[in-house]
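Protocol step 4 of 5: obtain the predicted structure for the target chain.
Materials: sequence only (see below). No template structures provided, no constraints applied. The aim of this step is simply to have a reference model before the mutagenesis design in step 5. Sequence pasted as it appears in the construct record:
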Amino acid sequence: MPLLDSLDPSLSSLEKKPERNFVRIISSTMIVLNILSIISSILFLFDLQMASFLNVFGVVLLLTFIGNIVVAALPSNKQTLDQGYLLFAILAMFLLPVINTVASNNPFNQDSTSWLSSTILFLLLGFGTVVAWTKRTGSNSVFVGSPSLEKQSRKAVIGLVLLGLCLLIGLFSAYQLLVGKTGGAIEMFFPGYALFFSISTLAITALLIKRKRTKVRVSLAIVGIVIALVFSGPVVATLFALNEAEHEFTEVFGKNWGESIPDDASSYFLNTPFSLPNYFFGTGTEDFTFKEDILFYEGKEGVDKNIKLYFDAYLPPGNGEALPGNRSVLIRIHGGGWTIGDKGAGNNAEVNKYFASQGYVVFDVQYGLSSEEKFVDFAPVPENIVADFTIDDMVRHIGIFTDYLVKNNNEFKGDLDTVFVSGASAGGQLANAVGLGLASGQYTDMLNPALKVKGIIPIYPANGLARHVGIDGSDELVDPALLVTEDSPPALIFQGTKDGVVDPSIAKEFDKMYRSQNNDGSALIMMPFAGHNGDFYFSSYYNQVFMYYMERFMYLNQR
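Step 4 output (C-alpha cells):
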C-alpha cells in the first residue's frame, strides 16, 4: 500500500474504496441495530411481553452484541475506543449473570431484577453505537498493520497474556461442556450461563487479533470462534429440544391441553418457553408478601435435641383468588446432598417469588441435615439443623411442618386440598418421598393426611442415592420410586443430560415406574448439556423452559 501511495495516489484510493465501503455498510447496519435494541429494551422494561415481540427482539439483541464486537475488531484510527468497548463487553458479560443471579435469589427483591443489570446493557448498546458511528465516519483500513508485540508496552503485553489465558480457560471449559458429567463446578454453574461466555469469548478474541500479525490473527480467530460456537451449543440444543418437551407434556395432558387454560390465567404465564431478553435482563416477578424465619419445630430430646427448624412463606398479593394459583400450596424443599443447603437464596428463591406472585402460597422449608461428610466442604450450614439424621428423620421433619401448617393455616389461607411438592437433587428425592408418601396414605404417623397432593415436581431427583453417602433410611423413602402406584399424583420431572452427580438414568427410571404402574401422569423434560444444578440461573434457557411447563402443569392439576 505505501508503494501504491507513492506511485499513484489515485490507484491507492481505488484500492481502499471497497474496504471503506464495507466498513461503512456494516457500521451503518450496526448503528440501526443498536438503536432498535435500545428502543426495544425500553419497551421490554415497560413489560411489553408479547411472544412475537420477545422472539424478534431477542434475535436483534443477540445480533447487535455480536455485530458490535465485529465492528470493534476492524482496525481504525480509534484503536483505544475499540479496545475500550471490547473490554467493557467482556466485563459486562461476566457481571450480568452474577448481578441477575444475586437479584433473582434475594427473597427481599420484589421484582427479582436489577437496575444495575439494565444500566450495563444500555451502556453496552450506547457504547456500541458510538463505536459503529466512529467507524462509519472515520478513516479505516482493513489492512492497517497492528503494532508488533515487541513495540507494545509492558502493560499491554501483560494484558495480552491475561487475555490469552482467558482463551485457554475457555478452551478447557468448552471441552468440559462437551464431555459433561464431571460433577465439578463447571458442570454445576457453567452451562446455564454459557451464552454470556460465548459473547465474551468473541470479545476476547477480537482484542487479541487486533494486536497480532495476520497469520496469528487467523489462528486466534478460528480458536475463538470455535470456543464461542461450543458455548452457544446449550441454547441452540435447548431450542431443538423444545419439541421433545412439548411431546412429553402432551403425553400427559393431551394434544389440546392449551385450550384448558383460559386467557385470563395464561396472561400471567411466560409467553414463550425461552426469551433471550429475559436471559440478559433477568425475569421479573410481580407482587407478593414475604415472611421469613418462622419457627415450626424446636427439638427437646433424642436425635432432635437442640434442633430448630424454620420456614419462609411467600404469599400472594391480596386474597390471590383471581390469580392462576388460587391459593394452592407449593412446598419447596432445598437440595445439598442431605448434608448442606438451606432455604432462601440457597433454594432458587425466585421460584418461590414467581409462583407466589401467581397466586400460590409457597413454603420454603428447612429440615434436619445429616452430620455425614458435607457434599461441598466449604459450604456454610446453619448449626441448628445438623445431627445424625436419616432420610426418615428428614421426611419426619417436613411432616412436622405439615402439622404446623394444618394447625396454623388461618394465618396463611392456603388451599390444603391442592398441594404441590417440589425440590432439587436431595430436595427432589425428599419431595418425591413426601409427595408420594402423603398420597399413599401409609405415613399418617409422619405426614399430615389433611394435605391433598395434586402433583410432584422433582428436579434431578437423587432417588436411592442417600446410602451411597452413608445416610440410612427405609427403602421406600430412600428410593421413592418404590411408592409409585396407579393412583400416584402426576409428576413433572426435570433432568439434565450431562448430570455427573445424579445420573440421568435415575430420572428416567422414575418416569418409567409410572408407566409400569399404568399411570400416565409422568412427564420427563430432558435438557441438553445441562449438568447438576442446571436450574441455578432462573433466567437460563433451561429454567425458563421448565418454568413454562411447571406453571402450566400446576394450573392444569388444580382441577
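Step 4 remarks: Residues 12-236 form one domain. The chain has 18 helices and ten strands.
Proceed to step 5.
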